[in-house]
Amino acid sequence: MSVTLKDVAALAGVSRSAVSRTFTEGASVSAKTRSKVEKAAHELGYSPNALASSLTTGRTKLIGLISNNFHNPIFLEVFDQFTRALQERGLRPLIVNLTDETEPANSVRMLRQYSVDAAIVASSTLPPSFAKAFHDAGVPVVHTFGRSATSPEVHVVGIDNVECGRMAARELLARGYKRVGYLGGPKNATSALDRYRGFMEELANHPEIDVTHCFADAYSFEAGRAEMLRFLEDTTAQAYFCGDDILSVGALSALKDHGLQPGQEIGIIGLNDMEMSRWESVDLTTIHQPIKQIITSSVDLIEEMLKEPQRYPEARIFPCRVIERGTLRPRP
Amino acid sequence: MSVTLKDVAALAGVSRSAVSRTFTEGASVSAKTRSKVEKAAHELGYSPNALASSLTTGRTKLIGLISNNFHNPIFLEVFDQFTRALQERGLRPLIVNLTDETEPANSVRMLRQYSVDAAIVASSTLPPSFAKAFHDAGVPVVHTFGRSATSPEVHVVGIDNVECGRMAARELLARGYKRVGYLGGPKNATSALDRYRGFMEELANHPEIDVTHCFADAYSFEAGRAEMLRFLEDTTAQAYFCGDDILSVGALSALKDHGLQPGQEIGIIGLNDMEMSRWESVDLTTIHQPIKQIITSSVDLIEEMLKEPQRYPEARIFPCRVIERGTLRPRP
DNA sequence: GCTCAAGTTGCAACCGGTTGCAACCACAGG
DNA sequence: CCTGTGGTTGCAACCGGTTGCAACTTGAGC
User: What confidence tens digit (pLDDT) does each residue in A309-318 have?
Assistant: First the structure.
């Protein structure tokens, strides 16, 4: 059926080892043999079987990419960046969709069956135990968008969510809002909790400010909309920090229902700066999370771990900044 | 490092074959041996190496999932559905992001290196030659969202795009629009061409109707917006069929810029019925494409091809229907 | 022409499994 | 007690590669 080492060796009139060596970096082959082999390989349309070689080398170049977030548009950007960054380095993403899975053991077993070289947990709504399960099973792992404080044993790449909460609070204060609210993601997401903490900490210095908060069921449009509708029934905040752009977009939709003009009557600041936030019809003031840098750095880290498996764990934290658009009133 | 057959065999006091057989469906092992092996395997935390076994069985359960569409939110739904459908059947998606790739040969080679059991080309903007390249290389392939007419040798799952174009035209006619336009996807997408053809064919029966058209650069918000802005400069159509919801959303944004009220002053009908189209702030009248059925069927077909590789190619076409929302004026 | 080091090559064992085959076993039927 | 049968088991070869090792080739230096 498919062309193997043996076929090429036969055609080129050399041993199987010689063929193998011409296809492995830095092996000792003479120019003459190499060219004979390359000619034969080309003639037969041979390409080495990566899986078979993984048996002896222990390297598959397969990277498990684990996520559960398929309802937040930012994740289309995340998948795009991850798949491209991995491909550029000759690595292959093996996707695991954890939407209806809560047990780390299953994913770990599955990815070990396929001998992935490493795993990337790309979600802030998966508990630290997920990344830790891979680490404990001896699989190099990076938790992208994770929280470093509670995962000292694994590599974490992302942002300082507490600081982002503070940043949002400062931004609302600077614009003179007196009654503010936090509309966060699900309570099981470390990002939602940390952003909440930062927001509250900063406002604790300003006891004159009135604060409310809530946590949505998910990082999704519907959840953001539902919570904002609830707020609008009895709360009188003038501005909200929504813990994610997709929640913000849901919230904006709720405001529209109530005939409220974002920016003018009610302020909204999001977090992520997803593509959609730039759309004129959304025009969301938001905190930019440097997705591209985070992902490139995650993949760099993966590569380095492959070279040095016992690498001491680190957290790579990237700064965020406010992007001014139309959903907050201007600074005085 | 990791636990192998041999370790389990040694602990259980049986041969390696016995261990292998307890883990393969339908092999002949006595209840006694099986329980001994299972006990030992559990004790050591053994799980078989899928890649090693693929060497002899020729099955990896790896499925190449190839796409280039990472700027259309519908693809988040597509990836979600695909990854789940594959997982449910014990198959593993190996993603290939073709955003900056135009040469099929590379992807084919790559996926053959990983011995994928089959490939799914999930895009209407990739040329038929992509799917064909896999077919020619002996890799079972399904072109989801493909066009059956120009790909008789590969399996295609999707919708009848020509009929959708007609459907859109009929819908605009039924609502009494006299000047209409088609705002399609990129010209290299079979879907964009076929929808165009159907739209025009239907309108050819109504010479009194004034028709314009254009093709956007991509299936993206920006492209849809840009084309609609261009239309608004000199065209006076009353309603547009946008060949995709994301183009529609871009177009809606352009209308808003010009102070035009969709539904009232200018009609828009999309195609896909993505999640966002249901949002109150979008509220897009659109043609529903049954994504879930298409994907489930694609994966079913993949499974059947694995059983019967020489299966005669077929096209599975699912009917679409108009979803009435707020961007077309009501039927009289 | 001889020596020797460096570079090249093939053999054979191995990676972690699967599987055809023949030997073996227990047991039912005569 | 013998025979035949069907189920179970282990051996050994194989899947498509890699790699340590020893043997070989080559060519420079004297």
Answer: 889 999 999 9
Residues B262 and B165 occupy one common structural domain: yes
Cβ of A54 near strand D (under 7 Å)? The reply is no
Cβ contact A53 with chain D strand, < 7 A = yes
Share of chain B above pLDDT 70, in %: 100
Both A239 and A309 in one domain: the answer is no
Mean pLDDT of the region A135-159: 95
| Mean pLDDT, all residues of chain B | 95
Touching check for A84 and chain B: CB below 8 Å? yes
Q: Return the closest-CA partner of residue A212 out of A236, A187, A194.
A: A236
CA of A43 to C1' of D28 (A): 38
How many folded domains does chain B comprise? 3
Kindly list the residues from chain A whose CB atom is less than 8 angstroms away from the CB atom of residue B75.
Answer: 76
**A36 belongs to a structural domain:** yes
Beta bridge partners of B156: B143, B315
**Residue A324 near chain B (CB below 8 Å):** no
- Judged by a CB distance cut-off of 8 A, whether residue A196 touches chain B is no
CATH code of the domain in which A296 resides: 3.40.50.2300
Same domain for A267 and A197? yes
Q: Is residue A324 one of the residues assigned to a domain?
A: no
Mean pLDDT throughout B151-173? 97
Identify whether residues A149 and A262 lie together within a single domain.
no
**Residues A81 and A178 both lie in one domain:** no
Q: Report how far apart, in Å, the C-alpha atoms of A255 and of each of A233, A286, B281 are.
A: 11, 17, 10
Q: CA of B28 and C1' of C29: distance in angstroms? A: 25
Per-residue pLDDT reduced to its tens digit, A33-90? 999 999 999 999 999 999 999 999 999 999 999 999 999 999 999 999 999 999 999 9
Domain extent at residue A22: 5-48
Residue A329: inside a domain: no
Tokens 């006619």 map to which residue? B173
A75 contacts B95? CB cut-off 8 A: no
Distance, in angstroms, between B155 CA and closest chain A CA? 22
pLDDT in tens, A228-287: 999 999 878 999 999 999 999 999 999 999 999 999 899 999 999 999 999 988 999 999
How far away is chain A from the Cα of B219, in angstroms, using its nearest Cα? 14
Is the CB of B51 less than 8 angstroms away from the CB of A55? yes
Q: Minimal CA–CA distance to B311: which of B159, B155, B156?
A: B155
Residues 24-53 on A with a CB inside 8 Å of B are 47-52
pLDDT in tens, B290-318: 999 999 999 999 999 999 988 999 999 99
User: Do A111 and A101 form a contact (C-beta atoms < 8 A)?
Assistant: no
CA pair distance B25, B32, nearest whole angstrom = 17
- Tell me which residues from 55 to 94 on chain A have a beta carbon below 7 angstroms from nucleic acid strand C: 55-56
> What is the signed CA dihedral for B202, B204, B206, B209, rounded to 10 degrees?
100
What element of type H or E holds A272?
A: strand A267-272
Which of B51, B96, B275 minimises the CB distance to A51?
B51
Place of tokens 């003018």: A264
What is the pLDDT, as a whole number, of residue B102?
78
Q: Does B310 touch chain A (CB under 8 A)?
A: no
Domain identity same for A136 and A167: no
With a pLDDT cut of 90, the percent of chain B lying above it is: 90
Same domain, A265 and A167: yes
In a domain, A56, yes or no: no
Q: In this structure, are A181 and A284 located in the same domain?
A: yes
- The region that residue A221 occupies, defined by phi over 0 for left and psi between -120 and 50 for alpha, beta otherwise, is alpha
Please name the member of B71, B92, B115 whose beta carbon is closest to the beta carbon of A49.
Answer: B115
Token output for B223:
């492209």
B236 by Cβ neighbours in 10 Å (0-12 / 13-18 / 19+) ranks as exposed
Sort out which chain A residues have CB atoms less than 8 A from B221's CB and list them. Answer: 275-276, 279
